[in-house]
Each structure stands twice: as C-alpha cells, then as structure tokens.
Amino acid sequence: MIDETGENRGIVSIKEALEIADEAGLDLIEISPQANPPVCKVLDFGKYKYEIQKRKNEAKKNQKVVNIKELKLRPAIDTHDYEVKLKQAKKFLSQGDKVKFTMRFKGRELSANSMGKDLLDKIVEDLDLIGKVDSAPKLEGKQMSMTMSPA
Predict the structure, then answer these.
(1) Closest alpha carbon to 131 in 148, 146, 147
(2) C-alpha span between 148 and 37 (Å, rounded)
(3) Does residue 100 come out as left (phi exceeding 0), alpha (psi in the -120 to 50 range) or beta?
(4) Judgement on whether residues 49 and 111 belong to the same structural domain of the protein
(5) pLDDT tens-digit series, residues 132-146
(6) pTM of the full structure
(7) What's 21's domain CATH number?
C-alpha cells in the first residue's frame, strides 16, 4: 500500500488500508491488480480520474491524423491535365496527406491496361523526391489503384 504522501507502507490488510484511507478523507484505489500482492494507493479518486483524462487528451492532441486524398485519372490523359494532377498530388504530399491514384478504364481500354500501369509508373518517377509508394499499382475490376505517402 502507498499512502497519500507517496510513502510505501508495505503489505497491509484490506481493513487497515481502508481505515487509513478513511482517516485521511480519501479513497483507496487499486493501482495494479495483477501484482502479487496487489498495489493500492490512497488518493482522491476524482482527482485521479481527472489526471487520467488529462493524459488521454494530451496523447490525442499529439497524434497526427493522416488523410487520404484521391486523384482520379484516365489512361488517355492530356499532358496539361497530367501536370495539374501532379501539382495537386505534390500539394497533398507536402501537407502530409496520403494520395490514392485511381485509374479508371472504360470499354476497350481495359484490354490495354498497360497504358494505365505506365502512367502510374511515370507518376511514381515524377514524385520520387516527395513521396514513396505504399501499395503498388494493382488492377481491381475496371480500375487500377496505387497509394503514395509523404517521404
């Protein structure tokens, strides 16, 4: 048992520990139930819960949320349109977001899906300094997709 001042009291019976907590006007809280014998501490339970919540909020504040931005392409894309998509991808990657490139195929384009693969490879080559490939281009039905994350 650990008392309200943080001093280790050693092994104490439950009845005695409850009496010590009652005298101090505080609560007896089981800190480590798996330990043998279990570790208990005398402190204010409301304050204890508040500190735990505060630690959780601090941890949540420090974590980074990663968004996935999707850019849709076609295999027969014009150079200017390609450059616009590339510029958007650079902007997203520099902001720390992941980018998912989706290549949509229609009709006969599906039989010549190597054009789409070549275009996605060109994107990887152009964005080599800014991002890295998370998932390689793969064909799923009528679309091919690839995911990149910031380098």
Answers:
(1) 148
(2) 51
(3) beta
(4) no
(5) 999 999 998 899 999
(6) 0.60
(7) 3.10.20.80
